[in-house]
């Protein structure tokens, strides 16, 4: 949603997004129509950059189940039974892979809408392995998270192979979760009282 900065307007916001590198052809698309309908006041501030602040609250529920709240959504995270959990939901690393895959699909949809491209039947697979040696205290030679992630992408369109490659390059330049996973993101930690 859009919160107007002082002196800002919905029209100015739409003008900005239409002229951005990742949103150059939004005007007549379904995305443009959706943005025109967005209510003002929640989630996004219109400033020089278009800032969308995300706040997630996470708490322990029972056994190893964790409940995560973001806006008006609730997502649960769990661990496999082999780790003493109930296996009722994806693990945190699986949620990371889900975030990456869903960001690829969403960004393909968004960029295709901006460019008025006919893209459909989008399928993405994300695969990676984690060495639990560090978590189990066996070895600290390998990183604790994924060593690498492989993303497979399939979609229908009238694009030639080279056009698809250029299109996916743009997707990987514009997707927020893609960027956070591909590039180091500073993380700070504080103990709350």
UniProtKB/TrEMBL annotation:
Superkingdom in the source lineage: Bacteria
Gene3D superfamilies the record matches: 3.30.300.20
- Record-linked Pfam families: OsmC
Q: Which SUPFAM superfamilies match?
A: OsmC-like
Protein name, entry field: OsmC family protein
Could you read off the lineage of the organism from its UniProt record?
Answer: Bacteria, Pseudomonadati, Thermodesulfobacteriota, Syntrophobacteria, Syntrophobacterales
């Amino acid at each position: 949603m859009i919160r107007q900065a002082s002196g800002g307007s919905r029209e100015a916001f739409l003008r900005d997004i239409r002229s951005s590198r990742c949103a150059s052809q939004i005007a007549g698309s379904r995305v443009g129509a959706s943005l025109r309908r967005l209510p003002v006041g929640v989630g996004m501030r219109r400033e020089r950059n278009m800032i969308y602040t995300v706040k997630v609250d996470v708490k322990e529920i029972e056994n190893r189940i964790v409940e995560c709240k973001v806006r008006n959504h609730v997502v649960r995270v769990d661990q496999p039974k082999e780790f003493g959990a109930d296996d009722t939901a994806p693990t945190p690393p699986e949620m990371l892979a889900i975030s990456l895959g869903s960001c690829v699909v969403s960004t393909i949809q968004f960029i295709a809408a901006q460019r008025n491209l006919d893209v459909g039947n989008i399928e993405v697979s994300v695969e990676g392995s984690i060495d639990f040696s560090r978590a189990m205290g066996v070895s600290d030679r390998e990183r604790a998270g994924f060593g690498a992630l492989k993303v497979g992408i399939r979609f229908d369109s009238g694009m030639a192979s080279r056009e698809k490659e250029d299109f996916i390059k743009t997707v990987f330049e514009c997707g927020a979760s893609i960027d956070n996973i591909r590039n180091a993101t500073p993380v700070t930690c504080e103990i709350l009282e």
